[in-house]
Amino acid sequence: MDTIIIEDLEVWYHVGVPDDERARPQRLLLTVAMQHGFAAAAASDDLRRTIDYYAVSRRLLRFGEGRSWRLIEKLAVDVAELVLAEFGATEVSVEVKKFILPETRHVAVRVTRTRPHQPGRCDL
After folding, report:
1. What number of other Cβ atoms are within 10 A of residue 96's Cβ?
2. CATH architecture for the domain at 3-114
3. Which of 104, 108, 85, 87 is nearest to 96 (CA)?
């Protein structure tokens, strides 16, 4: 399986356990690794045969509008489910980096989710 990676996309989402932390958006970095067979795209040089990483990045930049999360774990799962549902990845790994502890470079969570197999569907 082939992989398309968006590394350290800077987003500003409302996230945090305390209400006052969620009151203002904070800087997060998202890394999204999307599994998708893109042999057909490489052979045809056709964007429609692969995952449009520009479209994914634009969607993720808007994903936090009007939303908030308490946990970055929940945020990571929500991003993974979005990519699976809207962009056709067969598997996705999402890492969320948060800059909340002054003694660390960042804290992060990483999740991996796989699209359920759909009978009769051929992912080429």
Report:
1. 27
2. 2-Layer Sandwich (3.30)
3. 108
Among the listed residues 84, 90, 92, the one whose alpha carbon sits nearest the alpha carbon of residue 6: 92
Q: What pLDDT sits at residue 78?
A: 98
Neighbours of 118 (CB within 10 A): 8
List Cβ neighbours of 107 (8 Å cut-off, separation of 6 or more).
72, 97, 98, 100, 101
Closest CA relative to residue 88, chosen from 45, 59, 50, 43: 50
pTM of this structure: 0.90
Closest to 31 in 3D by CA, of 87, 109, 84: 109
Q: Note the pLDDT tens digit of each residue in 46-72.
A: 999 999 999 999 999 999 999 999 999
Owner of token pair 């964007």: 47
Would you call 99 helix, strand, or coil by DSSP?
Answer: coil
